[in-house]
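Morning - adenosine-2'-5'-diphosphate inputs below, output right after.
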Amino acid sequence: MKTYRVAVAGATGAVGVEFLRLLEERKFPMSSLKLLASARSAGKTMQFAGRDVKVEELTENSFNDVDIAFFSAGGSISKLYGPIAAKAGAVVVDNSSAFRMDPNVPLVIPEINPEACEAHKGIIANPNCSTIIAITPLWPIHKVNPIQRLIAATYQAASGAGAAAMTELEESTRAYLENRPFEQKILPHPYAFNLFSHNAKVDPVTGYNEEETKMVKETKKIFGDPNIRVSATCVRVPVLRAHSEALNIECERPITPEEVKSLLENAPGVKIVDDPEKNYFPMPKDASGKDDILVGRIRTDTSDPSGKSIAMFVAGDQLLKGAALNAVQIAEVLVQRGWVHGA
Ligand code: A2P
């Protein structure tokens, strides 16, 4: 079996730490592992498979001996170093939004469009976390009864804004309970016992923020369906690491909740959690640390008398399927299908 020289850019971040854990847990075939971060972290050590690995400063020369480079250090770092890594011969799997809508860059959820990876020119984009968590469970439905319209409302965790935002949520909650003042530095509004419209920039023309626009555009690209109509309202809630979303879909033909359940029962990456008797449905607490996206509250949307609309509620770990896990699965597709060089 071939092995690969792997680098993780942003190794010390919230997603970076999950990359290390997943590469170890899933026994990714590696011959070497390079951990890259800012100069602030250079020289620190991180644990991988029971041994210490030194963190190196990310520079232009970091990728000369790398086959697969996972990037999760923010959009500007990806924009700058992604093309450098690709030029040096690595295949970049990029977790930022830098290249997602570039027509030359595949945007991939392995449960949906793994074959898109083949056309890569050195960079493959990992979709936005809210997009992945919404549309992975929708794909099995879309394949048999095309979704014409999706309306999503998100309940997004702190982890999407990075490790520092998670710390800010914990510290501001502690301060709130101890009746101490707290000055937030990472997020724009008080987070403890509060929620607010997603902190991405709002387009003054459309009124949609960038997170919402990502969900609209990325869904069309991943489904390969420019006609699907999507609208989203994205909100940050004081949860550490799993996003939840209320989804309303309108299909081409009538569809029942039973049909949806049977389509999702054995779908990869999805687990049905739907117990109306116990009022037990997907919760971020249950989705945290889990690979699967939890799906429940599957019911007919009675506001549409045609019977074509379904409402549901999903929860998925933002750091795993929303980020590191999806990226590692992309790399596994590359390895399994021979779409990356190894030795
Ligand atoms: P560092 O820990 O050295 O700042 P998060 O998404 O959790 O905020 O993590 C961001 C990741 O991106 C961290 O690993 C961080 O490293 C890394 N990073 C931030 N700025 C740079 C930079 N200028 N060069 C390389 N890595 C960076």
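Note: The longest strand covers residues 242-251.

O.
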